[in-house]
Structure formats: C-alpha cells, structure tokens
Amino acid sequence: MSDYDYIPKLYDVHYDAPETDRQSDEFFWATVGGCKQRFNIHDYATLYRIPWLYDIALYHNLVCRTPTEMSAAIDKVWAAAGVDRSGLRALELGAGSGAFGHELRHTLRIPHLEAIDICPEAAEAANRDRAGLYDAYHIDDLTNLSPAAETTLRKAKFNVVAMASATGWGNHIPLAGFETSFDLLIPGGWYIFHVKPNDPDPECIELCAWVADKVNNGALKQAYRGSHFHRKSSNGSDIYYDVVVGVKQ
After folding, report:
1. 112-117 and 35-40: which strand pairing?
2. Which string of DSSP letters, residue by residue, matches the chain?
3. Cα Rg of the chain (Å, integer)
4. How far is it, in rounded angstroms, from Cα 41 to Cα 212?
5. Number of CB atoms found within 10 A of residue 2's CB
6. Which of 14, 37, 50, 100 would bridge with 67, disulfide CB 3.0–4.6 Å?
7. What is the domain class of 66-248 according to CATH?
8. Per DSSP, what are the bridge partners of residue 222?
9. Structural domain spans, the chain
C-alpha cells in the first residue's frame, strides 16, 4: 500500500476538534507562506489553489487510503476476470487534484484516462501538481452537461467510469450526476464507485438506494462490494466506505 511518498510534506497542518459529526464540518489550520490560516476540509476551490494542500491534509494528516484501497480491489477483480487493460478508456468523476487518477493510471495501468469535475480549481491543481496525468480534464456539471461536453464525452465511448470520495454531504455529486455518468458508460463497461452505507446523510441514503435498484433491476451486475478504510475523522475515529465494482448490462 502506498504511503503517498510522492506527495510533499508541507504547511504544518493541524486539525480542530470537529464541531459536528458531519464530515463537511471538519476544519484544519495550515501555515502557508508564513501565515497561519484556517480551512474547511471540503472548501475545494480554496484548497486547490494552494499546491498540494488538499492532498497533504487528507493523505498525510488523516491517513486517507481510499485511492490505494480502491485500486487494490479493482486490480483483483480485473485479474480474476482476465480484463485486457490495453483497451481501457476511463472517465474519473469528481476527479479533484488527481490522487485516485494517479492510481488508475500508474497502478491499474489504464492507458486512456479523462477526468471531470465541476470545480475549475480542481483541474488547475491536477495540471499543476500531477502534470500529464489525464488525457483530458473536463470542467462541467454532470447534472447539466453543456452540449459540447456531452458530445465529446459520448464520442469517447468510455468502458470504465470510476469515482472515489465524491458522494454525499451536500457538496459532492448529486444522484442525477451519477445517472448521467452511468449513461455515458458503454454496455459491458465497468462502473466503479464509493458509497458510505448506513449513513444518515440524505444524499448517501439516496445513492445507496440507487445502487441497490441498479443491481436489482439488472442494469448493473455487481462483481464486488466490500468495506474499506477511507480515512480518519479529525476526532480520531475511523471512517469506512463500501467499494463497489460492477458491469453495466
């Protein structure tokens, strides 16, 4: 398992005790340019403007292991299924600054990898901190794609659509975005995502029901589902999510 040694250790990050149990209410302090500043963990636009700050706060300080946990699970499924990776064309949803994309490209050896995120600063961070990782990075809203983006994404004929840590809490991909992404995947393609079960957050509840419906109605053949360590909360407790790997029917 990677310790994310390629991510530099900067900024002297320290977390506040969380104000609530909501993951979106976690704050930390970081010394940037000699100035101590307070940040919300999900204020993506602000965090991505500062080189590596989001990655340092998550992967070093909260020991997030989702990218490596997910890639290890996917690798086993694909090895067992005899997947020819040379022909894989992947779209990563809510790609952010590219930590999961790094695993998709370098661990899973996906030759063609595109990204989509609603946040322009995410693309700037990925291009700055992980230059050349993506073949294309689309800035658009999956719930309301521009005609040009929709045409481009459909022409790509993705046989992998994957996402990590981009669900729930009112500031991630809504259910309509997942429906659009599922539609962009060609039949027989791999749909891979991350969901937190048994969570009171309305968006998490909606997505869990959506997943169950896709499996039950035969639209998605589930090849794997397992609980994996996500990261530590700033109060020190462990957070687990389910990794789901399925094939669109």
Report:
1. unpaired
2. ----TTS---S--EEPPPSSS-GGG-EEEEEETTEEEEEETT-HHHHHTSTTHHHIIIIIIS---HHHHHHHHHHHHHHHHT--GGG-EEEEET-TTSHHHHHHHHTS--SEEEEEES-HHHHHHHHHHSTT--SEEEE--TTS--HHHHHHHHHH-EEEEEESS--STTSS--HHHHHHHHHHEEEEEEEEEEE-TT---HHHHHHHHHHHHHHHTTSEEEEEEEEEEEEE-TTS-EEEEEEEEEEE-
3. 17
4. 30
5. 17
6. 100
7. alpha beta
8. 246
9. 14-61, 66-248
Q: In the block, which residue shows the tokens 């590219």?
A: 98
Read off the tokens for 221: 């053949």
Cα separation, 134 vs 90, in Å, equals: 10
* Sheet bearing 35-40, strands edge to edge: 14-15, 27-32, 35-40
How far is Cα 57 from Cα 222, in angstroms, rounded to an integer? 33
Q: Which of 98, 115, 108 is nearest to 4 (CA)?
A: 98
Tokens standing for 190?
Answer: 């791999």
Neighbours of 222 (CB within 10 A): 14
Q: Residues 10, 43, 162, 181: what is their CA dihedral angle, to the nearest 10 degrees?
A: -160
Phi-psi label, residue 218: left if phi above 0, alpha if psi -120 to 50, beta otherwise: left
Alpha carbon distance 118, 125 (integer Å): 13
CA dihedral 138, 180, 107, 233 (to 10 degrees): 90
Q: Decide: 110 and 90 in contact? Cβ < 8 Å.
A: yes
**Cα distance between the two ends of the chain:** 32
- The pLDDT tens digits for 53-100 are 999 999 999 999 999 999 999 999 999 999 999 999 999 999 999 999
pLDDT digits (tens, 9 = 90+) for 115-144: 999 999 999 999 999 999 999 999 999 999
